[in-house]
Design goal:
The protein is built from ten helices and 15 strands. With 245 residues, it is α/β, with parallel strands linked by helices.
């Protein structure tokens, strides 16, 4: 079991039980109490959980926006299939916008198009793009630690001066009436700006985001094509374009 997978299980158990002891976590995950204590210290440093003497409870922030490390391990096989599809849609000589997020991060390893430039607000994406020798432009602005995304007024203004052939945008929810939604106003503005400046915009997501509604809408269903692993039957008649991996 990887550390990331273990952290996901810890977060799930904290949410399920309200709070949980080190001994319970050690038994549940079949690792030593020393390993659990080390995990809890690191998770608290990232504000994923809150520790108390002998145990932990979930941080309230995780109900609003799970940390990027936890997202990385959720539905990983589905995300990889969607990422492979997305990468296949990138053509040579294109200007590409790659949103922050766990699914868009997976796209990087599958990119084979030549002579492209990638623009991204994703902090984690930068190292992966550099390691692939992909020319990269990093947007400026404040960083949201939970999502490892750059998002602010300057970010939106910078996007407004650019034009993209394709963009790949992550979403927290897809709702039949309210479209594509996320939990943060500035991240929503950043996503919306990228879609406006793109010839062919895509939303990349696994099927778990359907029927989910978050506080801030950044696009209508008809504004972009959804790349996903499956589409619920009740969405098939809606004005939404999609490609299934």
């Amino acid at each position: 079991m990887t550390k990331e997978h273990r952290w996901n299980k810890i977060a799930e158990l904290c949410k399920e039980k309200g709070q949980i002891s080190v001994e319970e976590l050690s038994e549940e995950l079949s690792v030593s109490p020393a390993t659990i204590r080390r995990d809890l210290q690191q998770m608290e440093d990232l504000k994923i959980i809150s520790r108390f003497h002998g145990g932990a409870r979930i941080s309230q922030k995780q109900y609003d926006e799970p940390h990027m490390i936890l997202k990385q391990e959720t539905n990983s096989d589905k995300k990889k299939s969607v990422a492979l599809l997305a990468a296949s849609l990138i053509e040579d000589n294109q200007m590409v916008y790659l949103d922050a997020g766990s699914t868009t991060y997976e796209i990087i390893q599958y990119i084979h198009a030549k002579n492209i430039t990638v623009v991204t607000p994703g902090i984690r994406h930068i190292t992966a793009l550099i390691s692939r020798d992909i020319p990269t432009i990093v947007l400026g602005g404040p960083i949201r630690p939970e999502t490892e995304a750059i998002a602010g007024r300057n970010t939106v203004e910078q996007i407004g001066s650019m034009f993209f052939d394709v963009c790949f945008i992550g979403t927290n929810g897809i709702h039949e009436k309210n479209g594509f939604t996320t939990s943060n106003e500035m991240e929503a503005a950043t996503k919306a700006a990228a879609i406006r400046q793109t010839k062919t915009p895509y939303i990349v997501t696994d099927c778990s985001k359907f029927h989910v509604l978050n506080p801030v809408r950044f696009a209508k269903l008809e504004d972009a094509t959804v790349l996903t692993d499956s589409v619920p039957d009740d969405y098939l008649s809606l004005p939404m374009k999609y490609i299934v991996a």
